[in-house]
């Protein structure tokens, strides 16, 4: 399990969207203008080329008050990542920083990862090769792993002017998050730390002002046993079985070839003696 996490304190977010712009710029992602949908939210949700979105939710409190609830929505980088478990090509893995990343040299665009994601984050982008043939690749936030490898913070974290976004050592971040939660509960009694244990926690952890469902998040996502069994047991054993079968066939062919060679040599000796 990674020693680093990204922390999102939604109670500090003012909806400025600087994180969205920084993400687009750093990752060289194309703009995706959308028609006005009657909301101040700029995009309906995450796409293959929009890796983080500020969501806006109108929320009426139990005391009759009203709040705008903002959330920096992006990949949560799950410890038991549904996308990774669903991938048949081993194209998805977790780095030492806790970031779940995609190897595009291995990705075949099958879309199983899209179906496996607990949070509807990962999506497929369509490209064309030099001959004009279309192909697809899975894409999502990679926590700016290339920046982390060079001692830099994720682009979204660097752009955040309210300290809503923090990246650091897990132990330190969680300690500060729990201290912050105690203060936030004075205004938001339902405030909570969102780090779902049904998927062994995530490497993007939220402090939410209300229940996860208010933000469109599953209350208690669970790793699918069928995916875990298939990925961690059935697939490796299947590869071993194929490898053993191949080795057996090749060994049999080698033995058969050796016997033929030996028999030919014996026949030659018998013919010479005769």
Automatic annotation (TrEMBL):
All residue ranges annotated as the 4Fe-4S ferredoxin-type domain in the record: 4-34, 66-97, 98-127
Keywords: 4Fe-4S, Iron, Iron-sulfur, Metal-binding, Repeat
Any one Pfam family match given in the protein's UniProt record, by short name: Fer4_11
GO biological process: cellular respiration; formate oxidation
Annotated positions binding [4Fe-4S] cluster 2: 23, 141, 144, 156
PROSITE patterns referenced in this protein's UniProt entry, alphabetically: 4FE4S_FER_2
Subcellular location: Cell envelope
Coiled coil: none
Co-factor note (free text): Binds 4 [4Fe-4S] clusters per subunit.
Record-given protein name: 4Fe-4S dicluster domain-containing protein
Annotated organism of origin: Niallia endozanthoxylica
Organism ancestry: Bacteria, Bacillati, Bacillota, Bacilli, Bacillales
């Amino acid at each position: 399990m990674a020693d680093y996490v990204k922390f999102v304190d939604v109670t500090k977010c003012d909806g400025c969207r600087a994180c969205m712009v920084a993400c687009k710029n750093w990752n060289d992602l194309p703009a995706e203008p959308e028609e006005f949908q009657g909301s101040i939210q700029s995009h309906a949700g995450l796409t293959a080329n929009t890796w983080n979105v500020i969501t806006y939710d109108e929320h009426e409190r139990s005391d009759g008050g009203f709040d705008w609830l903002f959330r920096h929505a992006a990949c949560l980088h799950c410890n038991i990542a549904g996308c990774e478990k669903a991938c048949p090509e081993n194209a998805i893995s977790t780095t030492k920083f806790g970031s779940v990343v995609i190897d595009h040299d291995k990705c075949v665009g099958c879309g199983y990862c899209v179906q496996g994601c607990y949070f509807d984050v990962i999506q497929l982008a369509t490209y064309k090769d030099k001959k004009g043939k279309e192909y697809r690749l899975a894409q999502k936030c990679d926590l700016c792993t290339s920046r982390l490898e060079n001692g830099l913070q994720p682009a979204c974290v660097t752009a955040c002017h309210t300290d809503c976004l923090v990246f650091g050592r897990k132990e330190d971040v969680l300690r500060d998050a729990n201290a912050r939660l105690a203060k936030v509960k004075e205004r938001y009694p339902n405030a909570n730390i969102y780090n779902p244990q049904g998927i062994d926690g995530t490497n993007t952890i939220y402090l939410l002002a209300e229940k996860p469902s208010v933000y469109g998040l599953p209350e208690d996502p669970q790793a699918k046993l069928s995916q875990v069994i298939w990925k961690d047991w059935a697939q490796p054993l299947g590869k071993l079985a194929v490898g053993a079968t191949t080795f057996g066939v090749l060994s049999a062919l080698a033995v058969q070839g050796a016997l033929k060679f030996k028999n030919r040599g014996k026949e030659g000796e018998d013919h010479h003696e005769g």
